[in-house]
Design a protein that fits this description.
By secondary structure, the protein is of the alpha/beta class. It has five helices and five strands; from the N terminus they run βαβαβαβαβα. It has a single domain, classed as 3-Layer(aba) Sandwich (Oxidized Rhodanese, domain 1), CATH 3.40.250. 33% of the residues lie in helices and 16% in strands. The longest helix is centred in the C-terminal third of the chain and has 12 residues.
């Protein structure tokens, strides 16, 4: 079962300065519209070749536009042995809908 977090809970954890690894798996074109502050960008199709770069000692929060692609990416990573992956339920759409900060790509 994939662990999920909603935007409000993620914001609380970030405000507590929890050491989370935020991973935006959207396409280059989607990311041009902004990202969650302090997140890394890696298009979903590159996850298999970059998994050795992901931290094993802290939670990895994956997000996409709506939460669907990141849910499947979490499932894939769990099958590869990652137990520290969490899907952002509702994706960046839900994040924005809740009025939370979206940083321009250049500032990320």
């Amino acid at each position: 079962m994939v662990k999920e977090i909603d935007s409000k809970e993620l914001e609380k954890r970030l405000l507590k300065n929890e050491d989370l690894y935020l991973l935006d798996i959207r396409s280059e074109a989607e990311v041009m519209h902004g990202m969650l502050p302090n997140s890394e960008h890696l298009p979903m199709h590159l996850i298999p070749v970059r998994m050795m770069d992901f931290p094993k000692d802290r939670d990895i929060v994956l997000y996409c536009r709506s939460g669907a692609r990141s849910y499947h990416a979490c499932r894939f990573m769990m099958q590869q042995g990652f137990s520290n992956v969490i899907n952002l339920k509702g994706g960046i759409i839900d994040w924005a809908r809740n009025g939370l900060e979206i940083a321009p790509m250049a500032e990320v």
